[in-house]
C-alpha cells in the first residue's frame, strides 16, 4: 500500500522547515516508496539528532 502524497525527502524537509522545525533528519529507503523523518521544534546538537534518528529511522 502506498500513499500518493507527492512528497520527496527534499520537499518534505522544506515543508517542515517552513512549519517551524529547525532540526530535521530524514531518510528515503532505496527499496521502497517510504520516507522517514524525525523533526524537533527545539534546536538539537548534531550528535543528539543522530542518536534520536538512529533510534527511530529504519536502517
Architecture overview:
With 59 residues, the protein is of the alpha+beta class. The chain has one domain (9-56). 36% of the residues lie in helices and 20% in strands. It contains two helices and two strands, in the order H-E-E-H. It has helices at residues 9-18, 46-56; strands at residues 23-28, 35-40. Strands 1-2 form a two-stranded antiparallel sheet. The mean pLDDT is 88.
Itemize the secondary structure elements and their pairings.
Layout: H1 9-18, E1 23-28, E2 35-40, H2 46-56
Antiparallel strand pairs: 1-2
Labels describing this entry:
59 residues, alpha+beta, two-stranded antiparallel ribbon, 2 strands, 36% helix, flat
Amino acid at each position: 500500500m502506498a500513499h500518493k502524497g507527492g512528497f520527496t525527502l527534499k520537499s518534505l524537509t522544506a515543508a517542515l522547515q517552513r512549519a517551524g522545525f529547525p532540526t530535521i533528519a530524514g531518510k528515503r529507503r532505496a527499496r521502497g516508496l517510504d520516507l522517514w523523518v524525525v523533526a524537533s521544534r527545539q534546536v538539537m546538537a548534531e550528535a543528539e539528532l543522530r542518536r534520536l534518528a538512529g533510534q527511530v529511522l529504519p536502517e
